[in-house]
C-alpha cells in the first residue's frame, strides 16, 4: 500500500463497475476538436494521397470518422510500411508528428514504399486529452481481433485490407508527466489495485519488440532523433519506466502478448516511439520534429535492409 491519495473515482481495493465508469465518463470534457485540428489537415492532402475512411466510432451520439492516407494504389513490387499516431489521444506529437511527416517528408518515399499512415487512431481520446477511449479501455493493450475497442478492430481491419506483408510499422507515442499524475492512478483505481508511484524519464526513448529484436534498426532511429532532442538516460537501476534499458534509449516489451498497436502488421521492423513533451528542454515543435525524424529514419533503414 502506498501513501499516495486514491483516485477520486471508486473505492480503494474494488474494481470499477458501471456506476464508477459513468462517473469517469461524466468527468471527461472536450478540450479540443478533432474535426478542427486534424481532419482539415488530412483533407488538405487529398491531391497528394489517397484518403481512406476506414471506420467510424460512435460514442453517445458523437461520431468520429477514422482516416488513413495512402501514397497511391499498393505496388506489389514495393515493401509496405504503416505509420500510426494518436493511439493514445492525449499524446499530441503522435498525431501532429504523423501529419507533419505527411506534409513535409512523405513524398520522398513515392516509388520506394507503399506508405499507409493513420494519424489519429483514437479521436475521442484526442479531444479529451485522455489515454483511454470512452469505455475506459486503453487501446494500446487491446489490439486483438475480438477487442472491445472499435479503435483497435478498425485499424486491424484496415491492415488486413491492404493485402500482402508489411516491412515496417512505427507507432508514435509520448510519455508525459500526466502518466504519473493521472493515467496510472486511474488505471490502478479502475482495476481495484494499489497505485505504486514510478518515475517519468526525461527524454526520448523507443520500445522494441522483445520477441523480434531489431537493435540496429532501433539505434538508427535513436541516432536520427538525437539530432533533434535528447535521449532519455536510464535511472539509477538501469531502467526506463520500470523496464531494463537494453541499448542507448531502448527498452523492450513483448508487443503481441501485450496486444500493442505495433504488433498489428507482423512487420519485420517495428518500434514504438516515446517523446517527452514536459521536459524543460523540449517544445511542441521539437516533439513533432522528433517524431518526423523517427519516421524517416525508420523508413530509410527498413528500405535499405529489406
Automatic annotation (TrEMBL):
One of the protein's GO biological processes: proteolysis
Keyword GTP-binding recorded: no
Q: Which InterPro entries match?
A: AstE_AspA_cat (IPR055438), Peptidase_M14 (IPR000834)
Q: Where is the Peptidase M14 domain?
A: 30-306
The protein's matches in CDD domains, at most eight in alphabetical order, are given as: M14_REP34-like
GO molecular function annotations of the record: hydrolase activity, acting on ester bonds; metallocarboxypeptidase activity; zinc ion binding
Keywords from the UniProt entry = Carboxypeptidase, Hydrolase, Metal-binding, Protease, Zinc
Cofactor (UniProt): Zn(2+)
Query: Per UniProt, what is one Pfam family of this protein?
Result: AstE_AspA_cat
The family annotation for this protein states: Belongs to the peptidase M14 family.
Protein name as it appears in the record: M14 family metallocarboxypeptidase
In its UniProt entry, the species of origin is given as Flavisphingopyxis soli
Amino acid at each position: 500500500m502506498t501513501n499516495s491519495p486514491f483516485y477520486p473515482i471508486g473505492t480503494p481495493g474494488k474494481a470499477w463497475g458501471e456506476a464508477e465508469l459513468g462517473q469517469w465518463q461524466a468527468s471527461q470534457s472536450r478540450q479540443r476538436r478533432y474535426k478542427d485540428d486534424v481532419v482539415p489537415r488530412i483533407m488538405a492532402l487529398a491531391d497528394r494521397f489517397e484518403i481512406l475512411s476506414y471506420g467510424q466510432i460512435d460514442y453517445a451520439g458523437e461520431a468520429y470518422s477514422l482516416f488513413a492516407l495512402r501514397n497511391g494504389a499498393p505496388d506489389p513490387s514495393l515493401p509496405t510500411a504503416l505509420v500510426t499516431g494518436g493511439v493514445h489521444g492525449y499524446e499530441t506529437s503522435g498525431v501532429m508528428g504523423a501529419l507533419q511527416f505527411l506534409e513535409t517528408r512523405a513524398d520522398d518515399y513515392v516509388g520506394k514504399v507503399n506508405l499507409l499512415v493513420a494519424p489519429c487512431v483514437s479521436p475521442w481520446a484526442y479531444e479529451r486529452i485522455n489515454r483511454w477511449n470512452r469505455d475506459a479501455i486503453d487501446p494500446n493493450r487491446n489490439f486483438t481481433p475480438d477487442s472491445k475497442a472499435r479503435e483497435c478492430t478498425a485499424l486491424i481491419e484496415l491492415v488486413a485490407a491492404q493485402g500482402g506483408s508489411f516491412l515496417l510499422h512505427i507507432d508514435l507515442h509520448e510519455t508525459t508527466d500526466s502518466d504519473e499524475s493521472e493515467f496510472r492512478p486511474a488505471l490502478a483505481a479502475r482495476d481495484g489495485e494499489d497505485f505504486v508511484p514510478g518515475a517519468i524519464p526525461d527524454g526520448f526513448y523507443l520500445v522494441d519488440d522483445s520477441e523480434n529484436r531489431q537493435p540496429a534498426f532501433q539505434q538508427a532511429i535513436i541516432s536520427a532523433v538525437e539530432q533533434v532532442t535528447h535521449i532519455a538516460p536510464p535511472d539509477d537501476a538501469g531502467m526506463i519506466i520500470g523496464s531494463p534499458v537494453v541499448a542507448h534509449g531502448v527498452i523492450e516489451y513483448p508487443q503481441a502478448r501485450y496486444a500493442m498497436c505495433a504488433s498489428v502488421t507482423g512487420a519485420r521492423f517495428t518500434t514504438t516511439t516515446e517523446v517527452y513533451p514536459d521536459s524543460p528542454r523540449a517544445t511542441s515543435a521539437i516533439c513533432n520534429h522528433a517524431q518526423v525524424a523517427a519516421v524517416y529514419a525508420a523508413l530509410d533503414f527498413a528500405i535499405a535492409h529489406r
